[in-house]
Amino acid sequence: MLIAEWLAERFPHEQEGDLGRRLALLVSQPVLAEVAEAIGLGEALAVSPGEAKAGVRRRATVLADALEAALGALYLDGELLRARPFVRRAWEAVMNRQAEPPKDAKTRLQEWVQKRGLGLPEYKIMSSVGPPHAPEFVVTVAAGGFTGTGAAGSKRAAEQLAAGNLLVVLGE
Q1: Residue 74: pLDDT above 80?
Q2: What average pLDDT is seen over the chain?
Q3: How far is CA 107 from CA 84, 104, 133, 147, 155, in A?
């Protein structure tokens, strides 16, 4: 909520879709982990010696979850009055990097082919393996005579990875 509020203040004339993409990036696991690492949250985590040895304090999932928990505690203890300045300090570097709204790989690929008058990218599920609670999808995408591949635990994530892979192939 505080990030959304800040974005609305900072980009008052931006379209809702662009603000939504900015918000999605700023609250994504990689950014949460980056912020947690920047404030030294991983070192404050109490973990068993075995987990510490395994590097659990540096795992993005752990850092992101710990930051969300810390923000929840800060909010419950100090409400928005205390949470707002912390969020703005902690996210300032990431917020300042966002000159333009971020675009996901599928959007960037679609814009790339449309700019060149090519047909839309074609996504194809090549395989789906694993149990229902932990599937792995392999997806290919073809555009402009080139292909990219991605594998992930959801079709949507695999499509994003495939588009990202194709953008790399295309030099984008």
Answers
A1: yes
A2: 91
A3: 32, 5, 28, 16, 16
Domains identified in the chain and CATH numbers: 2-96 (1.10.1520.10), 105-169 (3.30.160.20)
Indicate if the alpha-carbon torsion angle 41, 46, 49, 54 is positive or negative: negative
| pLDDT tens track for 91-122 | 999 999 887 777 788 988 998 999 999 989 99
Phi-psi region of 166 (alpha: psi -120 to 50; beta: other; left: phi over 0): alpha
